Amino acid sequence: MLRFIIQKHLTLIAAFMVSFVFSTIANAIDIQEVKSEGGIDALLVEDYTLPIIALSFSFEGGVSQDIAGKEGTVRLLSALMDEGAGELDSSTYRAKLEELGISVGFSAGGDRFGGSLRTIREDKETAFEMLRLALNEPRFDGDAIERMRDAIRTSIIRAEADPSAIARVKLRETIFADHPYSRPTQGTEESINAITRDDIVAMHRKIFASGSVKIGVVGAISAEELAGLLEMTFGTLPKEANLQEIPEIKPKLGVVEQIDMAVPNASISLVYKGLSRDHPDFFAAHLMNHILGGGTFSSRLYREVREKRGLAYGVSSSISTREQTNFLIAGTSTRAENKDEALRIIKQEFERMAKEGVTQEELDVAKKYVAGAYAINNLDTSGKIARVLVALQTENLGIDYIDSRIQQIEAVTLEDVNRVARELLSVEPTVVTLGPATQ
């Protein structure tokens, strides 16, 4: 009920309540640094409330490692990692996981390759052995490759007929041109068909390395127990990854692209300058964006586009940070006949933010909500906490970040936010729209 109230009615009272919840959860988290005998590092939160262990991990190297003409290789690799390992074929491997209630999963991100493990304490040795097999001895059997290839191909074909997916592809191509970030994450029908087993094996060798893995663990396990299991699971991987270097890129701004398509709803995307996660002004930008369009039901964009004019069901903005780029993006979907008006209002609100900034009252409310919502969204389950522990490492936030975050937010001044608004938003954005051509 608390979450519903916060999302629907952001008030000072609700913000204070969320801040209290954050403080309660954050103060209960005791993070330990664990190192195995062979040098595998992890962050651990011991918690014996339930006999459950949740592990999250992340390797350097995501879909940006795909080579031209073989786009979709990393996505296909992620789909195959739990399709049999060692002497266990796909059905046998999955049956054993299901029998013991062990969950093993993998995911391909833009810059990193992630995964997770969840098990009850009494089966921890078996669970970590199953993960070890998947990481070190994936089978990549021919039938599994074709089954996963077919599934991804079906997804690609579906996306080719999805206006929202078409607009995302066009936006990515527009702002990143020939950079690896411009490539389709799932690949194309042509590229996914061109991928061979050798390509998959080579990509596995490139990405999976003990020296690049970041690990977070939460649950009923001691540091000593975890150290041994980490060494067993990750210690036999190659030490160094063999990744291609991804160059930095600034998104191209000031471009206007219209995709003519006879659809009842038009989509609108705008891209502005952003800030990297480690920039000193990141929290000033984060708070500014929350007020502008990140606060969903409380934001200026929502109020002007949805509440006052009924032009769209939802509208939002967010700051996107990747290892080699960052930007602020806003978007909405609206009836085709409302496209020009919705775009005008969105741009108007960005211009107003750049020129006038925010008020002290808006900033005070945003600070309280942003400080507290982090706990509600990220620290309420063991799996989420494990992912946060990984993020602390991949984003170089420091082991004290959960505690220091509130102080960093409180240190942001009105002048900081308004200065950042001017710096980021006083530009001509790239605008990509999809819908019927304007008559």
Structural account:
With 439 residues, the protein is an alpha+beta fold. It has 2 domains: 29-234, Metalloenzyme, LuxS/M16 peptidase-like (Cytochrome Bc1 Complex, Chain A, domain 1, 2-Layer Sandwich), CATH 3.30.830; 248-435, Metalloenzyme, LuxS/M16 peptidase-like (Cytochrome Bc1 Complex, Chain A, domain 1, 2-Layer Sandwich). Helices cover 48% and strands 19% of the residues. The protein is built from 17 helices and 11 strands. The strands form 2 sheets. It has a 6-stranded mixed sheet. Strands 7-11-8-10-9 form a 5-stranded mixed sheet, sandwiched between helices. It is globular. The termini are far apart. Mean pLDDT is 92; it is low at 1-27.
Mean pLDDT: 92
Number of H- or I-type helical stretches: 17
What is the fourth-level CATH superfamily of the largest domain?
A: Metalloenzyme, LuxS/M16 peptidase-like
Count of β-strands: 11
Please describe the biggest sheet, giving its number of strands, its sense, and whether it closes into a barrel: 6 strands, mixed
Q: Whole-Å distance between the termini? A: 47 Å
Structural class: alpha+beta
Q: In CATH terms, what is the fold-level topology of the largest domain?
A: Cytochrome Bc1 Complex, Chain A, domain 1
| Sheet with the most strands: spatial strand order | 1-2-6-3-5-4
Low-confidence stretches: 1-27
Radius of gyration from CA coordinates? 23 Å
Looking at the overall shape, the CATH architecture of the largest domain is 2-Layer Sandwich
Instruction: Give the overall shape, derived from the CA principal axes.
Output: globular
Beta-strand residue fraction: 15-25%
CATH class (first level) name of the largest domain: Alpha Beta
How many domains? The number is 2
Helix content: 40-55%
Give the SSE string.
HHEEEHHEEHHHHHEHEEHHEEHHHHHE
